């Protein structure tokens, strides 16, 4: 099968193309950059034996799925493209608006869509562990911390928000992504979820969930030191998604985590 990469010249686009070069069962059909990009027609990633040239269009005949690592400004157009060409899309861009979330739902009526704010296997598992922990531990205070490189645009990260959603599902709290703002002055409000954001140098991506109750605390933590982790997860998701009927899917579906957890919990 073959995938088209949108946002191909970015940090993650390049990581996906480099990871694809090491795959025998998935190839690259198009390395798509924005109109007017100075790299059009030039190699996006320098590989010893292969040339991946930047293009502005997808070869739909040759494409089984799309992987998008671009920007919020591009996501609506990319979803429309996927819908029009009935091409499954793994949507990895973060910082999406409420209306873009609704657009994902309408696109999913036509085609398989997998929005993944983090494509690492570890975070898919950490979300489940967080939900399990908050469903189990009584009287807990939940605080989420994330650290990324200095070029990251959105904050808190998409993953931090996904972890807050998982924590609130488990704890039975009402959480809306608008509440995902760093803490200010004043005493902690019961039932609130706090966020801490750090931006520094070239840190790839780190997240932790602090679950604290009087006298004890638990910290669930995940660190990525190589973007290949995200790239490999996105490719795995695209391979899986190419065989799905229209609908909205998650990384946990790709990895079969729900079945694994249900089996464990039933024992
Ligand atoms: N789901 C996951 O696991 C992960 C998600 N991400 C998310 O992926 C996204 C990209 O991250 P990263 O690669 O670091 O970012 P970069 O800024 O390095 O890359 C983004 C690319 O998208 C291009 N782009 C921007 N706007 C448009 C547009 N309107 N139309 C077409 N192309 C556009 C940029 O081009 P130009 O340079 O010309 O602006 C750039 O080449 C972010 O939202 C990030 O949070 C990142 C890592 C992991
Ligand atoms: O921009 C990044 O780099 C990352 N973004 C994602 C997010 O916002 O959660 C995932 C990852 O941590 C890296």
Automatic annotation (TrEMBL):
Query: Could you mention a single GO BP entry for this protein?
Result: lysine biosynthetic process via diaminopimelate
List where in the cell it is found. Answer: Cytoplasm
Annotated Gene Ontology cellular components are:
cytosol
Molecular function as annotated in GO? 4-hydroxy-tetrahydrodipicolinate reductase; NAD binding; NADP binding; oxidoreductase activity, acting on CH or CH2 groups, NAD or NADP as acceptor
Q: Which Gene3D superfamilies did the record assign? A: Dihydrodipicolinate Reductase, domain 2, NAD(P)-binding Rossmann-like Domain
Chain positions recorded as NAD(+) binding sites: 7-12, 92-94, 116-119
| UniProt pathway annotation | Amino-acid biosynthesis; L-lysine biosynthesis via DAP pathway; (S)-tetrahydrodipicolinate from L-aspartate: step 4/4
What Pfam families does the database record attribute to this sequence?
Answer: DapB_C, DapB_N
Catalysed reaction, written as an equation: (S)-2,3,4,5-tetrahydrodipicolinate + NAD(+) + H2O = (2S,4S)-4-hydroxy-2,3,4,5-tetrahydrodipicolinate + NADH + H(+); (S)-2,3,4,5-tetrahydrodipicolinate + NADP(+) + H2O = (2S,4S)-4-hydroxy-2,3,4,5-tetrahydrodipicolinate + NADPH + H(+)
Segments forming domain Dihydrodipicolinate reductase N-terminal: 1-118
Catalytic residues as annotated in Swiss-Prot or TrEMBL: 148 (proton donor/acceptor), 152 (proton donor)
Alphabetically ordered keywords of this record: Amino-acid biosynthesis, Cytoplasm, Diaminopimelate biosynthesis, Lysine biosynthesis, NAD, NADP, Oxidoreductase
Sorted alphabetically, which NCBIfam families does this protein's record hold?
dapB
Q: Which HAMAP family match?
A: DapB
This molecule's function is given as:
Catalyzes the conversion of 4-hydroxy-tetrahydrodipicolinate (HTPA) to tetrahydrodipicolinate.
Q: What is this protein called?
A: 4-hydroxy-tetrahydrodipicolinate reductase
Which organism's genome codes for this protein? Idiomarina tyrosinivorans
């Amino acid at each position: 099968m073959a995938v088209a990469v949108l946002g191909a010249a970015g940090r993650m686009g390049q990581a996906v193309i480099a990871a694809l070069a090491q795959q025998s069962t998935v190839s690259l059909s198009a390395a798509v950059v924005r109109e007017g990009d100075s790299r059009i027609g030039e190699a996006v990633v320098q590989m010893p034996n292969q040339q991946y040239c930047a293009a502005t269009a997808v070869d739909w005949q040759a494409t089984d799925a799309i992987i998008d690592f671009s920007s919020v400004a591009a996501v609506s157009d990319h979803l429309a493209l996927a819908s029009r060409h009935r091409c499954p899309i793994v949507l990895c861009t973060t910082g999406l608006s409420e209306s873009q979330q609704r657009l994902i739902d309408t696109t999913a009526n036509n085609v398989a869509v997998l929005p993944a704010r983090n494509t690492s296997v570890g975070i898919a598992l950490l979300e489940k562990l967080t939900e399990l922990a908050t469903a189990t531990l009584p009287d807990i205070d939940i605080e989420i911390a994330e650290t990324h490189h200095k070029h990251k645009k959105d904050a808190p990260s998409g993953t931090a928000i996904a972890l807050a959603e998982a924590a609130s599902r488990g704890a039975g709290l009402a959480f809306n992504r608008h509440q995902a703002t760093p803490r200010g002055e004043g005493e902690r409000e019961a039932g609130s979820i706090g966020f801490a954001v750090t931006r520094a140098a070239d840190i790839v991506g780190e997240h932790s969930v602090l679950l604290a109750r009087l006298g004890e605390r638990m910290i669930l933590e995940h660190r990525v030191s190589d973007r290949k982790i995200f790239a490999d997860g996105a490719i795995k998701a695209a391979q899986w998604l190419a065989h799905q009927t229209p609908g909205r899917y998650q990384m946990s579906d790709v990895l079969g985590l729900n079945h694994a957890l249900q089996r464990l919990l039933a024992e």
